[in-house]
Amino acid sequence: MVSLPRAVPERPLLLGAVGLTMAFFYLPILTIVYLSVASSAQPSIPIEGVTLQWYEEVLTDRRFVRALANSVGIATVSAILGTTLGLLAARTIVRSSLPRLYRASLALVIALPLFIPTVVLSLGIGLTAGYAGLGFGYGPIILGHLLWVLPFSTFLLTARYARLDDRLEDAGRDLGAEGVELFRSVTYPLLRPAFIASLLFCFALSLNEFLITFFLAGSSVTTMPLEIFGKVRVGATSFLNAASVLVLLFSGVIAIGASTYEWPR
Amino acid sequence: MNSDQGQPTEPARTAATSRNRLVDLLLGAAPLALAIALGVVPLGVLLLESVELGAYPDFGVVLAGYRAVGSSVYLPVLIRSLAVGIAVTVGCLLIAYPVTYWVANHCPPPLRVAALVTLTLPLWLNYVVLNYSWVWILARGGLLNTVLLETGVVAEPLELLFTELSLAIGFVYIYLPYVILTMYVSMERLDRRLIEAAHDLGAGRIRVFRDVILPETLAGAIAGTLIVYARIAGAFATPEILGGAGNQLIAQLISDAYLQILDYQLAAALSYVFLSVVLLGLAVGVTQRDVREELKQW
After folding, report:
1. B93/B176 Cα distance (integer angstroms)
2. Cα–Cα distance measured from residue B94 to residue B97, given in angstroms and rounded to the nearest whole number
3. In which band, very low, low, confident or very high, does the pLDDT at A4 lie, cut at 50, 70 and 90?
């Protein structure tokens, strides 16, 4: 007897669960967007008038703009250094002639921040930076962010590296390319999508990182998440809502941009 | 023609290999050094900080920090943090199972990537802001209370914010995308023919779930749980923004000890007790082969 191809049975309950989850994720965000254009500084639902005044205030607020500039600067450094180090690590893990145990250990050490609670690592880095005479500020923050982004860049690039065809590099070698030239002309073009995705994801991770920064910033340096956190503790306002929307928009655009290259796993 | 480009002689090849090894070693040294200096060394410093090393003539180790953790309020807070972590993770799994099953099996293929991106995009948004957005849903004058009052479901606004409930909602909000991402990987690997075969053999939906889907995805779920519950137990921003003042979690105690009362020894001892519990859970997971394979995915 020939079995007929069956249509996938529709599952309204499953679809409902997906719909509710989407609503759960995006309703609070839409609420903030709605409240950010309220005319009063302490909005109530429903809002009484519509204004873009709060966005103007956020973008001309010196503290907020400086915090944002700090965050962008730290995120740029973390993205470039984190992706470069991740590339070196991925190459070592996938391609090198070194013993298997060494490569597995490298992967394990790099993966530590995924397993060790962030609060524990942050405290450890803070105390170590203190003993090393680094104190608080940009130095420890950037080191902490590098540690935080390194597993993401490494494993994103490892996945790509592992899928590359060895023979392409061999062919490049046969044609006389060596070392840096081989990497520039053969390996890098093949890795490029993962490389760009890694830059963008590392940027987003660092831009949004809060806990490590909270432990390592001290009193002189502020970043955008620290600034928002400080304001949240004081109270909910239209100013804060507008700032929140701008932050979500910024990080969302970066993440969606990165996803067009490669979505993690 | 290319007689000089034939097979390299044996010594030449050995020399090339050892030179390649040196290059490999040097290129790998930078990320290794960073990961050790910032991941391993701080854990050592933390361990030394958590104890007091006796000076000459008695080189005893004084565990005052750990004694402080064992007594008084700290231990219940640690237990509570772990309990919250486990409860929230179970809640996330209950949501993630049907959601990822739908995306992997019922979502129209052209929409699958879009669905997955939509469901995991919050991972890349600012979690301080995401936590804060719930203030506007749950506050006395927030969206939920307004709707409930307008529709006459309640006469007085409910006190939802800064409660156990708001804490739990905030945690699910932040950590559900992680759980969805891991569960999706397991669901995608699940062989659909097994489900169809079970249906053909007359199994109902519950049997299919219990005997096919659950066993095939359990290792992934456990691996995800071991990671996510620890992140929740050690979270700081969510309890600060959405939790009540009376019920702190462990990360808040560590932060207070470090940044407010400057008791580094206590902060380090608290960290190590917490870390030990987390590592113990992972160690148990690693002994199970299936779970170990899944943990490698992280």
Report:
1. 8
2. 6
3. very low
CA B293 to chain CA centroid, Å, is 17
Taking an 8 Å cut-off on Cβ atoms, the answer to whether B254 and A123 are in contact is yes
Q: Identify which of B42, B120, B279 has the shortest CB distance to residue A125.
A: B42
Q: Exposed e or buried b for every residue in B265-297, given b needs 16+ CB within 10 A?
A: bbbbbbbbbbbebbbebbeebeeeeebeebbee
Between vectors from CA A120 to CA A116 and to CA A126, what angle results, nearest 5°?
A: 130
Asked if A136 is an interface residue toward chain B (Cβ–Cβ < 8 A), one would say no
Residue to substitute from B107, B112, B118, B128, interface A, most A β-carbons within 10 A: B128
Residues of chain B with pLDDT under 70: 1-16, 53-62, 297-298
B297 and A265 within 8 Å at the Cβ level: the answer is yes
Q: State which fold the B68-296 domain adopts.
A: MetI-like fold (1.10.3720)
DSSP state of A19: H
Measured in degrees and rounded to the nearest 5, phi and psi for residue B62 equal -95, 125
Handedness of CA A206, A210, A213, A217 (dihedral sign): positive
Start-to-end CA distance of chain B, whole Å, equals: 52
The residue with tokens 């070392």 is: A179
Phi/psi at B61 (nearest 5 deg)? Answer: -105, 120
The token duo for B137 is 């849903």
CA angle B63, B69, B70 (to 5 degrees): 90
Q: Is A33 on the interface with B (CB under 8 A)?
A: no
Of A151, A162, A93, A203, give the one whose Cα is nearest residue B34: A151
- pLDDT (0 to 100) of residue B297: 64
Averaged pLDDT, A227-237? 91
Closest CA to A158 of A103, A100, A90: A90
Sign of CA dihedral B142, B144, B150, B153: negative
* CA pair distance A48, A39, nearest whole angstrom: 7
pLDDT digits 0-9 by tens, A11-50: 788 899 999 999 999 999 999 999 999 998 888 888 888 9
Q: Which residue, A159, A171, A165, is CA-closest to A87?
A: A159
A255/B121 CB distance under 8 A:
yes
pLDDT interval class at A3 (50, 70, 90): very low
Q: pLDDT tens-digit profile of B204-218?
A: 888 888 888 898 889
List, for residues A56-112, the tens digit of each pLDDT value: 999 999 999 999 999 999 999 999 999 999 999 998 998 777 888 989 999 999 999
Burial of A24 (0-12, 13-18, 19+ CB in 10 A): middle
Domain boundaries, chain B: 1-49, 68-296
What's the pTM value of the predicted model, to 2 decimals? Answer: 0.89
The pair of three-digit structure tokens given for residue A264, joined into one six-digit string = 């993690």
B240/A229 CB distance under 8 A: yes
- Confidence check: pLDDT of A181 > 80: no
